[in-house]
Amino acid sequence: MDKQTLLVTGGAGYIGSHTVVELLGAGHDVVILDNFSNSSPKVVDRIEEIAGRRPQLVEGDAGDRSTLQQLLSRHRIDATIHFAGYKAVGESVAKPLAYYGNNVGGTVVLLECLEEAGARRFVFSSSATVYGDPASVPIREDFPTGPTNPYGRTKWYIEHMLNDLAVASPDWSIGILRYFNPVGAHVSGRIGENPRGIPNNLMPFVTQVAVGKRPQLSVFGGDYPTPDGTGVRDYIHVVDLALGHLAALEKVARGKGAWTINLGTGIGYSVLDIVKAFEKASGRPIPYQIVDRRPGDVAQCYADPSLAAQELGWRATRDLQTMCADSWRWQEGNPEGY
Ligand code: WQD
């Protein structure tokens, strides 16, 4: 694919920053639009340190019309990768209007501004959470969808919006990527997952136990119908995920219309598998206690990754030990985050 100028909303976030590093490394120019509501401006310096090139930065909200119109008048954007959005499942239950306003409402404004500017190539950060409680695993893209929380519904509604847009305006080219469970960090240890407060997700909680920031891990449920009774998920290295976006941009540049693809490894690991792998990778004990199930959790969720291989020519290659070792290097080198 020729050199592109790419707009990356939420580009200072966990997945966004790792994707920007790979985009710069592939020779593209990048404009990050981020309001730093869940990230730090320091990430841009770390991206430059790793990539040897600095992305352009616009500080602002990805759903703010005047910010977007000004940005699109200054930059000729070839394609957009849209990461920006609120992403905490529990918080979405408590604050549904904030999630619908920011995630869905903000994306409507973004798409209207892109349409106006004629920038009609779009890659959307969706989530396996749209599948809800799958009837079986591994999960294919044609499985029924039915998210069980407001956060997941915002992703689901945006997916429907994008498919409707592609029907109404056939000159749009849209890739919808359903992520499974992103973990790990860039091998340099200079960027990584940087949750504020108590981590909702498993891996950052485990890394904080390993570094002594948390006394022990609470394992949410030991009585699921899984090999060891704990929840099974498809953990995918964030750099593999980032590279999946480069492949998605190639496909978006080639055609028209909207398509949906899972980005996962196809391998399911339990919570206790992660604990054991992390102890091996870090050399640190991870004390844990099995407690009640977390409301809304499903027993198993992992991808059938064959469509990504077929349509994107992409597969995840980094194994669980690498995911854990890279997570640990980031945590050990940045105990207070950025
Ligand atoms: C993984 C497993 C928990 C924490 C969520 C969102 C999804 C995506 C990824 C945004 C489960 C168990 C966890 C802990 C635990 N986010 N667990 N103790 O719930 O699969 O997916 O994050 O896109 O949309 O739904 O990820 O990391 O929270 O949980 O036992 O302290 O670890 O029960 O089995 P999840 P998770």
TrEMBL record:
Keywords: Carbohydrate metabolism, Isomerase, NAD. It catalyses: UDP-alpha-D-glucose = UDP-alpha-D-galactose. Gene3D superfamilies: NAD(P)-binding Rossmann-like Domain, UDP-galactose 4-epimerase, domain 1. It comes from the Bacteria. Pfam families: GDP_Man_Dehyd (PF16363). It is an enzyme of class 5 (isomerase). Its EC number is 5.1.3.2. Pathway: Carbohydrate metabolism; galactose metabolism. GO terms for biological process: galactose metabolic process. GO terms for molecular function: UDP-glucose 4-epimerase activity. One of its GO terms (cellular component) is cytosol. Residues 7-326 form the NAD(P)-binding domain. Its cofactor is NAD(+). Homodimer. Belongs to the NAD(P)-dependent epimerase/dehydratase family. This is UDP-glucose 4-epimerase. It comes from Lautropia dentalis.
